[in-house]
């Protein structure tokens, strides 16, 4: 009669098995099959001696049974030594050339493993957090480096590369949506004379002041860029010609009101403004802006002209 009851047969947290002393499996419950990494359907005459890792099956056979036939009482390490093993607490008997094994998962070992798993999970979470923080910092640094490659260092506005990128994007949006796109070009008046009369340091101060003025007077959707020595372009998406002219005039007046250290005269600039026409090319649009700028210069400078 089998000593493994139907209830015990189904348990996976308890290991119960009967083996011949040659290591052949006679009977086992679900827990033993799981630890021994055997299929749920008990294989006939399977050799499971290698499932005993510490003590080994051979070492158990060498133990002389006590009066009750017991040959081991304590910890058992079982499983596949090349894959996964489990530490259990149990007893082994050897009677009539048959071994009976009854063991359960060692609670202390389970608690230790559980604590180790929690520690590993914490370490993993901390490592993931640190990695995420590092990635954020790297992305921020990459964004900063990219911004530097698109920024004029003296004035703080965009450079020619930034203008070309943004202009291409805005023209595509204009062609797709039909929303107006305006731009103005500004040229600081008599800038060479400023450099010659007051020195390049003062000229740089004028450029920096105008750059700061453009940044302060334009919206987040608008793009200001320095494209030459004293030439600047501002893109005005979603802006019609009338509004663009008002913006340029506001900036012209604000520039004229600036006071630059070591320069007794007030700086001024000429402005050419245009709004992109339907089916107009990029080059044709910018030529109209440039033509309007030169018209402003011919008109006496320090004024705004529409193209």
Automatic annotation (TrEMBL):
Entries under SMART domains matching the protein: GGDEF
Annotated ranges, domain GGDEF: 179-307
Top enzyme class: transferase
Catalytic activity: 2 GTP = 3',3'-c-di-GMP + 2 diphosphate
Pfam families assigned to the protein according to its UniProt record, in alphabetical order: GGDEF
InterPro entries according to UniProt: Diguanylate_Cyclase, GGDEF_dom, Nucleotide_cyclase, Rev_trsase/Diguanyl_cyclase
Keywords annotated in UniProt: Coiled coil
CDD domains: GGDEF
Entry keyword Coiled coil: yes
GO cellular component: plasma membrane
EC annotation from Swiss-Prot or TrEMBL: 2.7.7.65
GO molecular function: diguanylate cyclase activity
Annotated GO biological process: cell adhesion involved in single-species biofilm formation; negative regulation of bacterial-type flagellum-dependent cell motility
Coiled coil: 107-144
Highest taxon, organism lineage: Bacteria
NCBIfam families noted in UniProt: GGDEF
Protein name per Swiss-Prot or TrEMBL: diguanylate cyclase
Species for this entry: Rhodopseudomonas rhenobacensis
